[in-house]
């Protein structure tokens, strides 16, 4: 493994997590210079650099060692951890800290006019989702055999299009479900943004830099929420 003396943090370039992620790092005293490169911003005062990417790419970049830490939704991190796990060993990632923003839930929703006797109602059905591994784990734990139909977007219209019977999607206010005449019936995962790292320590200067960042994040969150 290559040793490095600078820490590279990946955050979402644009989307729900990008503003809060930048604020979080600024609050920890990290400043980055825009050197004209859209993807990479070097740290100004500390050996901590920024990578601006799509949120879905963050776990993969950490797994490949391209990024050292990442700010990403637990939903994305756990789905991709399941994708990369052999079922025996520990997962490839660690969540170092919950960050308190990007809160949402991954929920099952069915057409609003269905009765809901419980999860067994899903037996034999097709469920559209962008999170097939998390859904399959939830179904397996309940002994339900159903088919996860993977869609990368517009999951909520699948029941109307006839491509699936139910959906498993992220929900925050529930307005999208209501607009599509869907009813939230079961919660598969509670999520928020987390600071993600590889499962194993780096074994070089990056461990100290990550520890410093964690101390600073702990200090700023104590300032925000007085005991
Ligand atoms: O381009 P890139 O791939 O980086 O961005 P993206 O479009 O994949 O992600 P983005 O910015 O939409 O979401 C990033 C992360 O924000 C998600 O992975 C979650 O961890 C978190 N998050 C929090 C949410 C929501 N809340 C949320 N409400 N992600 C998506 N939604 C969707 C929801 O599924 C619904 O379609 O937003 C819509 C509105 O939700 P309601 O319930 O308020 O109507
Ligand atoms: Zn994405």
TrEMBL record:
It catalyses: 1-(5-phospho-beta-D-ribosyl)-ATP + diphosphate = 5-phospho-alpha-D-ribose 1-diphosphate + ATP. Its EC number is 2.4.2.17. The keyword Repeat does not apply. One of its GO terms (biological process) is L-histidine biosynthetic process. GO terms for cellular component: cytoplasm. One of its GO terms (molecular function) is ATP binding. Residues 54-203 form the ATP phosphoribosyltransferase catalytic domain. Gene3D superfamilies: Periplasmic binding protein-like II. InterPro entries: ATP_PRibTrfase_cat, ATP_PRibTrfase_CS, ATP_PRibTrfase_HisG. Pfam families: HisG. Keywords: Amino-acid biosynthesis, ATP-binding, Cytoplasm, Glycosyltransferase, Histidine biosynthesis, Metal-binding, Nucleotide-binding, Transferase. Pathway: Amino-acid biosynthesis; L-histidine biosynthesis; L-histidine from 5-phospho-alpha-D-ribose 1-diphosphate: step 1/9. The keyword Metal-binding applies. Its main location: cytoplasm. It is found in: Cytoplasm. Catalyzes the condensation of ATP and 5-phosphoribose 1-diphosphate to form N'-(5'-phosphoribosyl)-ATP (PR-ATP). Has a crucial role in the pathway because the rate of histidine biosynthesis seems to be controlled primarily by regulation of HisG enzymatic activity. PANTHER family: ATP PHOSPHORIBOSYLTRANSFERASE, ATP PHOSPHORIBOSYLTRANSFERASE ATP-PRTASE. This is ATP phosphoribosyltransferase.
């Amino acid at each position: 493994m290559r040793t490095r003396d600078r820490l590279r943090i990946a955050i979402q370039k644009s989307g729900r997590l990008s503003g809060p992620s930048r604020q979080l790092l600024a609050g920890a005293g990290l400043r980055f210079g825009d050197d004209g490169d859209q993807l990479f911003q070097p740290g100004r005062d500390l050996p901590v650099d920024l990578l601006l990417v799509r949120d879905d790419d963050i776990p993969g970049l950490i797994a490949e060692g391209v990024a050292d830490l990442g700010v990403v939704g637990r939903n994305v991190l756990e789905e991709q951890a399941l994708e990369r796990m052999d079922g025996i060993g520990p997962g490839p990632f660690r969540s170092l800290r919950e960050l308190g923003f990007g809160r949402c839930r991954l929920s099952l929703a069915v057409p609003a006019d269905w009765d809901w006797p419980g999860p067994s109602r899903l037996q034999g059905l097709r469920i559209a989702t962008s999170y097939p591994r998390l859904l399959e784990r939830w179904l397996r734990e309940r002994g339900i055999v159903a088919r996860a139909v993977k869609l990368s977007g517009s999951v909520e219209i699948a029941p109307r299009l006839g491509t699936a019977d139910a959906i498993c999607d992220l929900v925050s206010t529930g307005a999208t479900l209501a607009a599509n005449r869907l009813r939230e019936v079961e919660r598969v995962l509670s999520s928020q943004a987390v600071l993600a790292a590889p499962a194993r320590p780096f074994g070089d200067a990056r461990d100290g830099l990550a520890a410093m960042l964690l101390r600073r994040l702990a200090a700023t969150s104590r300032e925000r929420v007085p005991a």
